[in-house]
Amino acid sequence: MTVKEICEDFLRENGFDGLFKDDCGCRLGDLMPCCEPSPACEPGYLQDCTQCLSFDMNEGCIDACESCLGPEVSDE
Fold first, then answer.
1. Rounded to 5, what percent of the chain is helix, strand, coil?
2. Domain residue ranges of the chain, discontinuous segments joined by +
């Protein structure tokens, strides 16, 4: 079993959608396309792009995505 397979199993079993860090993210199904995951990668959830760390109110998501990965967003 590879580190990638271990990560995928953990993410699925715990309800996460992928991994993220700073301005980078990868979803289950295309996990670790960089082939060099960082120790700083964290489990994340798909979010509306307005919650994205790279969201600009005037331009939308800088990464031109419809959803971003990030920490769980509270409704507070």
1. 20, 30, 50
2. 3-70
